[in-house]
Amino acid sequence: MKKEKRLKGIVVSSGIAIGKVFILEREGDLVIPVHKIPKENIKKEIERYKRSLEKTKNELFSTKERILKSLGKSHVDLVDAYIKILDDRLFTHDVIRMIEEEQCTAEFSVSSALNKVIQMFERSGDDYFRGRMIDMKDVGKKLLRNLLEKKRKSMEKIMPYHIVVAATLDPHDVLILKERNCAGFILEMGTKTSHVALAAQGLGITSVVGLKDITNEEIEDEDDIILDGLQGIVILHPTQETLQEYKKLYEKLIKEKEELIKLKKLKTETQDHHKIDLLCNIDLPKEVDKVIESSAEGIGLFRTEYQYTDRDSLPTEDELYEDYNFVAQKVYPHPVVIRTFDIGADKLSQLGLEGVVKEKVPTLGLRGVRLALKYPEIFKTQIKAILRASSKGNVKIMFPMITKVEEIDEIKKIIQEAKHELKEKKVNFDNNIPIGVMIETPSAALTCDVIVKKVDFISLGTNDLIQYTLAVDRFNENVADLFDPLHPSVLNLIKHVVDVAHKKNKIVSICGEMAADTMFTKILIGLGIDQLSVPPAVVLKIKKIICETNYYEAKELVEEILRCESSDAILEILKQEK
Amino acid sequence: MIEEEFVVKNKLGLHFKSANELVNRISRFKSIVKVMKDDEIADGKSILDLLCLCVSQNDKIKVIVDGEDEQEVIKVIRDLIEHNFYDTPLDNQQK
After folding, report:
1. Residues of chain A with pLDDT under 70
2. Would you tell me how many other CB atoms lie within 10 Å of the CB of residue B49?
């Protein structure tokens, strides 16, 4: 019996896997031939090298295609980088020159060139450049494998009980592992933010990386192995006791997961049947799958800023529409609230617009509808795109950063124009599309009696509301601790908004971070909030709290809290609650 | 021959994307371009050479351009560095 051995690595995708070893490739599998090449064969050796280089590049191109199809654009960066590396002078010239001058094998020339580069990266104290070392090793290995005409073990033989051990993998390999449904994988290299790690997280495969020399440990295929993705530990040759301990832990995790799944089927209401709508915030269209999976009842905030950043020209109406329509179709019959762009003036100058200057204090500057109303044509383009996506009747439109009621009148005028233009073109849209505004400034909160008359719904953006009420920039570390959602001024503002809106029979939702923090859920329910909009990942956590809360008690709690003179006193009450 | 010193301001330093941008923009010129950090010299037209300098944020580099089109080349490089290699760091995208 071999002794149990525990190794510590880096957690990338949590979970627990108990299974058998499957060594895909050992680090020592690639043996570099060092013999001298006779002069007359040099030409042939170089030809052989060039063929392998070309082949490796072609493989990378087809990997890129496959990744594009299955994992999406964001995962191809690494493959692109690999291709660029192989295009570098080092591989196109230096390696060949060395074969000629030193009459060495192509493998030897490649590996010494690689080592030189890797050593340079190793010396750097910068994490980024250390990360590139891993890329170099990986791309070098692909090339050496082709030169040596060595194939990796076939991944076809991987079974669901296997835990795959390898030096490196690329994102496409991870995809195959997912298809083979393997229990997990362990890598020698990699970091938490490496491409493999992101792919593993995206696909939900338990994995630990950064276990140097794991492929050279005393392990064989089909040995018992435990992968503890919670702590980042790998246990080789576990004893019966350890196996038992982990089997229990595994079952416990499964149970917890099942409970959350049961929760999905429950109605989102308090113990005493007070209904709360639970929706999601998204920043990108592709997140819509997570929304559906989370059991949320639609999208309470679709931020559209991404469409206006990272590009040098304005998006066209069709481009905008495509994304809105995609999301609206996917969540149907549930609603999606699309919020018009809330970008700073600096972003517009990046989009090639003249006359926009960078502002000293962007948070107090030309942002949200202020910017939109200054550029009504850009604004109208977005509104038209949103209207076009509304034909099924599940789209609502929302406007950010309202500070005075006249802004709403101006917005409505532009909406009318947009509708008129679409009608002329005989384009279908929802003529009664609900219009809402964000309440995220004290001025909007305190005049919401006038605002609410002009709109169909309102949504509290607590991040900004708190920032502007308390005069605190939460990204400024000198004052970040003053950012306090429990400040009596904040809670009173929220209470005021809810009471006023309810008097006019309008729904109030909340989409700031406060909604996503379980600490505040009961308070928000007690304050009378109708709708919570949170990131997909926390939907079930918040749902659990809602289902466990008693509406009547929550209201009593809020009454008590609103009598408090300070947030410290409020915190004290919350502590006793627990 | 032109020599000019720069401070690299972008967050990841002269990383893959920025080095790639530099190589792509100056490859077509005839001049020889050398990039120096401390005592180490890199070929400005080789991505790996540039990466091997391990230039982090706020590091000083010296650029030496030599050739008939050196004036144009240094202009391109100056523009790139001033605009942080036209790269948007991740933390700006998130907000």
Report:
1. 1, 27-28, 74, 192-194, 355, 578
2. 23
Q: Which of B48, B84, B87 to probe the A interface (max A CBs under 10 A)?
A: B48
Q: Are the Cβ atoms of B93 and A309 closer than 8 angstroms?
A: yes
Which residues in chain B have their CB less than 8 angstroms from residue A123's CB?
54
Q: Which two tokens stand for residue A140?
A: 């070098």
Contacts of A304 in chain B (CB under 8 A): none
Catalytic residues of A: 195, 511
ipTM score assigned to the predicted complex: 0.72
Q: Cite the beta strand spans of A424-545 per DSSP E.
A: 435-439, 457-460, 507-510, 531-534
Q: Let me know: does A551 contact A272? Beta carbons within 8 Å.
A: yes
Question: Cα separations (Å) of A111 from A106, A214, A374?
Answer: 9, 21, 60
Contact residues on chain A for B59, CB-CB shorter than 8 A = none
Nearest CA in chain B to A124: B54
What pLDDT, on the 0 to 100 scale, is given for residue A106? 94
Q: Could you tell me how far CA A421 lies from the centroid of its own chain?
A: 37
- Cα torsion for A422, A426, A427, A429, to the nearest 10°? 80
Cβ separation A84–B93 shorter than 8 A: no
Q: What's the rounded Cα separation, in Å, for the pair B15 and B47?
A: 9
CA distance A230 to A281: 27
Residue-wise pLDDT for B48-85, tens only, equals 888 888 888 889 999 999 999 999 999 999 999 988 88
Look at residue B95 in the predicted model and tell me its pLDDT.
27
